[in-house]
């Protein structure tokens, strides 16, 4: 299942009202009204809606071959732009203005009842079926969906490229509704300005409206191409990259007089070409296609072609598009999409521990039909057509009430998040005390060497601060503060500034409690306990080949250290940064998620590695120019295929040997092992009284064998591992020293990483001393 859940729009009925609006005795002159505003019910539009929603549902069910089913959302955008523009142009033509309260009241009656109902059911389903560690994030998604801002929230979340086990939100599909609602805010205001211009200048309505649409479409299309190339994941969700698709539909409405002149044969040809273009998009586009960008022009223009030809088209294709079954599905398309995605998510993430089988996801999608039908007839239509809600004020009041209900459902789920006491895991190098913040700041370090004499006087070893001795008391009478995380595995009588590279963990009951009194970070916050480089965005996403260079350490350092690789080296960046700052090293980073700096595998194995390989070549050229004193790298990639390991070793050797020969010290940091089952934080959240149930027998990390063999193949490189303090006595621990070790997949919480600092520092310095 794609992590991106493209939903349909809900632009309202395809029935365009005939004649003057209420209160008007005469219709406007025929030449001032767009033909699209003079038409009646168009079954072909319902058929296009049916095609769009069925393609999206098939894609989410995982049906083979429908790799581009998510492009159905582009179809809905065009249809929405066409219908809304047609309605608004008719209103201007007949009244000379746009009534914003009336417009928003209609939108509220059409969209909010079903959307709020699904939000309520989704909150309940999440509480019943999903892990408690998901509640907080989903509650935030529901709240953002209730106010139609969730697309921006999702765009921000897509920067979390380190999330091995990240999963889709059950309300992720509300992003397109948010895009449309934001369009509905901008477009009526712009058409109101158009109406004023027309009234004062007596210019024709349709050309002025066309210019207004072009002012939206052209910048949005340009930005869509640029932003998609630069950051495809967030570009998928943001409104600014999608407005041009809605504007295309509006332009079709404005140019209606032109396509009304088409002959039936030409119109039919346009419909056939449009449907062929949509079919090609559904099966030829794939999740790896950068989207929207210029590629989205294919389904967008195909939909526009089908719209243009739809009025006058004849023949079997047109008949099929407007047939009763297609019209029925199209009429339910809004409800179908609202219901089907949470059902797929609950099946995939709640009922099945791993990816649900095809039959189960298909059953989930089919279950959306009776729910959509019931919701449509029992909730949507009664509220939409209620005479009591027809007055604008009452409709807007209903909208406010439904928004409050949606926010309330989010609040109820938020209150169900379990509270876990956390400790003030503070110490030298901590950015801030307390639990990790959603922004990704660490909870602090526990056990790092002090940066100043003042800190050495005030801070206890490995976290916490000693209480000041009272008058007449000896300071030595104060009990020692506990050591947290990996520092708790150090010998109690060993000062932190005397740690050497060969230090070994000492297992005690205090270091490995069965039921810790405090736990930092809380399991519900683990996924936000991120490394230093996260917020600045120094690690590039999986897709794309853009290279970003970031600097850390001492900006005026006399020596240069390059850090490159994937998220497995990125997780150690807080420690590397502080060591470099204290040791006269300027750090330059080149990081890309799920992409090792390796010269062979990507080029020889699979096409999907082409961007990674291109990125790696850029890194190699930068490093060649820099001629660094030190290079630090790591990766989780083990190699694939029968000769994958040999390829990876050869690729690392190709990159490392020239550096070693040029005098660069190359340090390779070991990969960290990962759990074999559910995420560690999910297990711990369910086993707070016996967290050792979440431990597992240690095995080599995915990348360990390749990294060690590559180091052995390149004399002069050095291998650095911390896994003995993550998996002491060959058992990986979910909690060490009251600190949660793992966030997502095989990635460590930043809080735990901070506690490893004295060991990491000692071993890094030893590796650099040993390197030639």
TrEMBL record:
A GO term from the CC aspect: membrane
Biased composition (Low complexity): 24-38, 426-440, 467-478
Biased composition annotated in UniProt, kind: Polar residues: 517-527
GO MF: acyltransferase activity, transferring groups other than amino-acyl groups; hydrolase activity
Keywords, ordered alphabetically: Acyltransferase, Hydrolase, Membrane, Transferase, Transmembrane, Transmembrane helix
Ranges where the SGNH domain occurs: 545-761
Keyword Transmembrane: yes
Protein name as it appears in the record: Peptidoglycan/LPS O-acetylase OafA/YrhL, contains acyltransferase and SGNH-hydrolase domains
Species this protein is from: Kytococcus aerolatus
């Amino acid at each position: 299942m794609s992590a991106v859940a493209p939903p349909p729009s809900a632009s309202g009925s395809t029935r365009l009202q005939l004649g003057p609006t209420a209160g008007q005795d005469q219709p406007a002159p025929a030449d001032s009204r767009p033909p699209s505003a003079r038409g009646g019910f168009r079954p072909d539009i319902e058929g296009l809606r049916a095609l769009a929603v069925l393609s999206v549902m098939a894609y989410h069910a995982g049906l083979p071959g429908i790799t581009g089913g998510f492009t159905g959302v582009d179809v809905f955008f065009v249809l929405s732009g066409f219908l809304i523009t047609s309605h608004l142009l008719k209103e201007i033509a007949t009244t000379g203005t746009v009534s914003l309260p009336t417009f928003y009241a209609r939108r509220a009656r059409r969209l909010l009842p079903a959307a709020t109902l699904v939000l309520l059911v989704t909150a309940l389903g999440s509480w019943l079926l999903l892990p408690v560690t998901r509640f907080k994030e989903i509650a935030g998604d529901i709240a953002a969906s209730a106010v139609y801002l969730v697309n921006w929230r999702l765009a921000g979340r897509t920067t979390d490229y380190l999330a091995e086990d990240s999963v889709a939100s059950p309300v992720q599909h509300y992003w397109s509704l948010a895009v449309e609602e934001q369009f509905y805010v901008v477009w009526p205001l712009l058409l109101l300005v158009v109406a004023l211009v027309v009234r004062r200048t007596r210019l024709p309505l349709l050309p002025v409206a066309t210019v207004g649409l072009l002012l939206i479409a052209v910048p949005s299309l340009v930005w869509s191409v640029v932003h998609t190339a630069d950051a495809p994941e967030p570009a998928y969700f943001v409104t600014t990259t999608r407005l041009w698709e809605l504007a295309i539909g509006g332009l079709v409405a404005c140019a209606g007089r032109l396509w009304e002149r088409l002959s039936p044969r030409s119109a039919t040809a346009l419909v056939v070409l449009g449907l062929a273009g949509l079919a090609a998009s559904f099966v030829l586009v794939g999740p790896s296609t950068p989207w929207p960008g210029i590629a989205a022009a294919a389904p967008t223009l195909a939909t526009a072609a089908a719209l243009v030809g739809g009025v006058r088209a004849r023949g079997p294709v047109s008949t099929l598009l407007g047939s009763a079954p297609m019209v029925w599905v199209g009429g339910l398309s809004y409800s179908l999409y609202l219901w089907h995605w949470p059902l797929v998510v609950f099946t995939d993430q709640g009922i099945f521990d791993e990816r649900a089988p095809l039959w189960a996801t298909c059953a989930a999608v089919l279950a959306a039909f009776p729910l959509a039908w019931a919701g449509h007839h029992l909730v949507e239509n009664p509220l939409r057509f209620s005479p009591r809600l027809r007055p604008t004020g009452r409709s807007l009041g209903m909208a406010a009430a439904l928004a409050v209900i949606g926010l309330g459902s989010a609040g109820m789920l938020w209150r169900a998040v379990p509270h876990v006491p956390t400790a003030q895991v503070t110490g030298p190098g901590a950015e801030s005390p307390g639990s990790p913040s959603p922004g990704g700041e660490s909870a602090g370090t526990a056990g790092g060497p002090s940066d100043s004499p003042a800190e050495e006087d005030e801070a206890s070893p490995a976290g916490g601060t000693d209480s000041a001795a009272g008058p007449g008391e000896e300071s030595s009478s104060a009990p020692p503060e506990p050591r947290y995380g990996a520092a708790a595995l150090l010998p109690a009588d060993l000062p932190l500034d005397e740690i050497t590279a060969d230090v070994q963990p000492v297992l005690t009951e205090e270091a490995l409690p069965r039921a810790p009194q405090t736990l930092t970070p809380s399991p519900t916050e683990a996924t936000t306990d991120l490394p230093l480089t996260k917020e600045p965005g120094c690690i590039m996403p999986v897709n794309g080949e853009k290279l970003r260079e970031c600097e850390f350490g001492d900006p005026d350092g006399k020596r240069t250290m390059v850090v490159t690789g994937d998220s497995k080296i990125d997780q150690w960046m807080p420690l590397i940064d502080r060591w470099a700052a204290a040791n006269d090293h300027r750090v330059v980073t080149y990081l890309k998620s799920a992409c090792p700096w390796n010269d062979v595998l990507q080029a020889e194995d699979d096409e999907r590695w082409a961007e990674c390989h291109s990125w790696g070549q850029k890194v190699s050229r930068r490093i060649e120019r820099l001629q660094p004193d030190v290079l630090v790298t790591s990766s989780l990639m083990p190699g694939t295929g029968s000769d994958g390991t040999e390829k990876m070793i050869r690729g690392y050797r190709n990159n490392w040997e020239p550096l070693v020969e040029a005098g660069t010290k190359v340090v390779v940091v070991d990969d960290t092992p990962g759990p074999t089952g559910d995420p560690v934080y999910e297990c711990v959240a369910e086993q707070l009284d016996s967290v050792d149930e979440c431990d597992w027998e240690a095995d080599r990390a995915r990348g360990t064998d390749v990294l060690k063999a590559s180091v052995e193949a390149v004399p002069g490189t050095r291998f650095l591992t911390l896994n003995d303090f993550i998996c002491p006595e060959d058992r990986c621990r979910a909690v060490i020293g009251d600190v949660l070790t793992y966030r997502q997949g095989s990635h460590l919480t930043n809080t735990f990483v901070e506690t490893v600092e004295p060991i990491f520092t000692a071993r890094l310095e030893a590796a650099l001393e040993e390197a030639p």
